[in-house]
Specification:
Keywords: Signal
Distance between the termini: 112 Å
Strand content: 35-45%
Helix content: 10-25%
Structural class: alpha+beta
Radius of gyration: 31 Å
Largest sheet: 9 strands, antiparallel
Number of strands: 17
Length: about 300
């Protein structure tokens, strides 16, 4: 039997179309693997805003901080748990295109803001933010909402460069606070420690009836129409003991020390000691009122 031996250049011509077809197939597969998802799979900013907006709106306070206030009855002892961001104030009126600027309380000492982006996050129920991690610049933070049977929790999650969870901080919604004010933390503290009706006695045994409201108003306390609970122990005099300042337009403010045990609230006079060679110190004086919250 005879075999036809073809010249080398003829063999090359015969195999070339097959090689080209294989290369085209590989290129097509690679392009398909790296191409963006079809438009139908993309979640648009308007859709995300409609989905997340109603959940995000409102005022939120660090849940760990509030837990320590409830346990210790002391804003001073709880101060270390305020966290880097102590509260959020989220108003949808500040939305622009695909982003939303949010007001912040920073460590309950000063204010700031961050931006939430209505774009897909690392998790199906999260949105990216521009909140930086100054210790690890490569980290990113996203915000999400966890909807429970009774309450919704706001969660700020920080991820490392390799997208592992570095930390999660939860926030409780505080009702009755305008979404454009950074006052939710104080409102929450007032609710836990003061708000309600009280009966009791003053320093000489006279009966009193006093009412505190969550928004800082007081009735029945001589010489006072409003009160401001100190929650910032980051600097300045008055960081030594828990204190509340009572105000009245007709007289100077008065700073009072307080303690709470269950439903019993005690108010004490204070003195600000100002030594020449040391920082001022707020000290407790005599008992002014012993009050019991009525249920």
């Amino acid at each position: 039997m005879f075999f036809l031996r073809l010249p080398a250049w003829v063999s090359l011509l015969l195999t070339m179309p097959c090689w080209i077809a294989c290369q085209q197939s590989a290129s097509t597969e690679q392009a398909a693997a790296t191409a963006p998802p079809p438009q139908s799979q993309t979640t648009y900013p308007a859709t995300l805003a409609q989905r997340f907006g109603p959940l995000l709106r409102g005022s939120w306070v660090n849940a760990d901080y509030l837990a320590h206030v409830r346990k210790s009855h002391s804003p001073q002892l709880a101060f270390d748990y305020t966290g880097e961001i102590s509260e959020f104030s989220i108003s949808l009126a500040k939305q622009s295109a695909d982003s939303l600027v949010v007001g912040l309380g920073l460590g309950n000492h000063e204010g700031g803001n961050l931006t939430i982006y209505f774009r897909s996050g690392l998790q199906p129920n999260s949105l990216p933010t521009n909140w930086p991690d100054y210790e690890e610049p490569g980290n990113v933070s996203e915000i999400s909402c966890q909807v429970g049977p009774r309450d919704t929790t706001l969660v700020l999650t920080t991820y490392s460069r390799d997208r592992k969870v570095v930390r999660r901080v939860s926030y409780e919604r505080v009702p009755g606070v305008a979404a454009d004010e950074i006052v939710a933390l104080n409102r929450a503290v007032n609710t836990v420690l003061f708000a309600g009706r009280y009966t009791g006695q003053d320093s000489v045994g006279r009966p009193v009836q006093i009412q505190f409201t969550p928004d800082g108003r007081v009735q029945g306390l001589p010489g006072a129409t409003s009160y401001d609970t100190s929650t910032d122990f980051g600097g300045g005099p008055g960081n030594d003991i828990d204190n509340v300042t009572f105000s009245n337009a007709a007289r100077a403010d008065r700073t009072i020390h307080f303690t709470r045990n269950a439903d019993t609230l005690r108010l004490y006079s204070t003195t600000l000691l100002e030594p020449v060679d040391d920082a001022p110190t707020l000290t407790r004086g005599h008992l002014l009122y012993r009050l019991v919250r009525q249920r």
